[in-house]
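Bug #77: duplicate submission created two jobs. Keeping one. Sequence:
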Amino acid sequence: MKREKGFEERLEKRGVSRRDFMKYCTLLSATMGLSSSFVPRIAEAFTSAKRPPVVWLSFAECTGCAEATLRTTYPWIDELLLDIISLDYQETLMAPSGEAAEKSLHDTIAKNEGKFICVVDGSIPTAENGVYGMIGGKTFLEIAKEVCPKALATICIGTCASYGGIPAAAPNPTGAKSVKDAIGVSTLNIPGCPPNPINFVGTIVNYLLFGKLPDLDDKGRPLFAYGKTIHDQCPRRSHFENGEFVTSFDSEEARLGYCLYQVGCKGPETYNNCPAVKFNEGTSWPVQAGHPCIGCSEPDFWDKLSPFYKSL
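Kept job's structure:
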């Protein structure tokens, strides 16, 4: 009760009412494919005393996925770190640096072996024994081999960690690979370039609610977020009729423009929930802004789905 009251007080100081917070919990419940009866339980999960320790490793990446996570709302990043998870190592956010930072990493692993969640952002260079990426005198490859197998679970956030992403695109001189392909561990993948932070929050909340990670598809993605194609959820979608594309003007958004399939939209072959949850506090998403989906949550999208402005 004390933790819940303190959490609500911090939200109020930010100008967020309990009503707004419960709206977010309702959105999260819908995103996770849960009934409305779970909304109070999700609210309780945010103030649970159970705080899983998390180690966040950053490898060959642009920090875009970390920046996307920093844009979480209700909870904001400080609530996410201080109340929901215990983020014990993340180079961008942590105060220590150098040897002190590395000590935090190794202390967390030693104390919580088999109990901590490892989040990985970025692909792993494997060419020439991984020499193309190093931290503290160790290659990304060495760090991943040392840390990931000791974790309760490894969550890959972003397409680079999940499938190799842009660093693994041809000709791939560094031999960049996904975490799974580089070191052989099973991973939960939250792809996207960047992914929507609500899918990461939903994954953590699923663990807090049910004591396990969410169900996955054949590519290691949470089904609650990646169970449908972009096209199937898109309000601007078209359908085939007598060999031609026909736009269904069944929403205000559809009336603002036609389906972008013919200008290269990869929505029919891309699995993600972008149309449902959108970005920037639910403001918009690429297709709503007039740009075709480029399929960034799919494996090898940079090679297989380009050129991006040519129809499938």
